[in-house]
Amino acid sequence: MTFAKYSLMFAPVALFMTMPGSAQSSADKMDRVVAHMQAVGTMSASFTQTDRRGGTLSGKLLLKRPGHVRFEYQKDVPLLIVGDGKALTMVDYEVKQVQRWPIRNSPLAALLDPGQDLRRYGKLVPTSTDEVISVEVRDPKRPEYGVITMVFVRQPGAPGGLTLNGWVALDSKNNRTSIRLGNVKYNGAIANSAFTWKDPRPVRRKS
């Protein structure tokens, strides 16, 4: 594995076939998405990440708003991605490298900040059924921050009546990644200690 090979993430996969037309108004759909985002404090899920060549990786996701996220990959992939509220950190334990960047500079900011103005920065992407709501979020004044398209599916009993099915993201370096979620659970207790990480870099001793 190389550090650049998995450099954050986010290869295009069509989550749902889209087509024009909808019986439910755009305003109603966006209201449902906003209500869902505001009602979710924490989330846990399994995830499958697919790259542009069709290769897949899997793992576990923890999310705690605002700003905390943890992507823990399958055992044979020594890679960890953690958001601690301010920055995203990608740790490659195989080559002992660490990369950090502000959360606000990542398309994941739309997912991690429940207060982000989706009505201002988001637009609905047509889907084949009202059971699915897809929202593309970008800041036109800061295109370098990337784009994320989140896909929600109706689910009675879930926050706002929706569950997050996954997303496709394009980051500032033009890297695309799709994430599909499973076994999603909302608003359980998640300690802040879940968003820490062990630094693999050698300790430099002072001479």
Strand order of the largest sheet: 6-5-4-3-2-1-11-10-9-8-7
Anisotropy-based shape: globular
Output the CATH topology. Answer: outer membrane lipoprotein receptor (LolB), chain A
The SSE string, one letter per element, is HEEEEEEHHEEEEE
Evaluate the radius of gyration. Answer: 17 Å
- Structural class computed from helices and strand pairing: mainly beta
Largest sheet: 11 strands, antiparallel
The first-level CATH class is given as Mainly Beta
User: Care to count the β-strands?
Assistant: 11
Summarize the structure.
This protein has 207 residues and is mostly beta strands. A hairpin with a 2-residue loop joins strand 4 (79-84) and strand 5. The chain is 11% helix and 39% strand.
Task: Characterise this structure.
By secondary structure, this protein is mostly beta strands. It has one domain (15-184): Lipoprotein localisation LolA/LolB/LppX (outer membrane lipoprotein receptor (LolB), chain A). Helices cover 11% and strands 39% of the residues. The protein is built from three helices and eleven strands. It has helices at residues 26-39, 109-112, 118-121, and strands at 42-50, 56-64, 68-73, 79-84, 87-92, 97-102, 122-125, 132-137, 147-154, 162-170, 176-186. It has an eleven-stranded antiparallel sheet. Strand 10 and strand 11 (176-186) form a beta hairpin. The radius of gyration is 17 Å and the shape is globular. It starts with 25 loop residues before the first helix and ends in a 21-residue tail after the last strand.
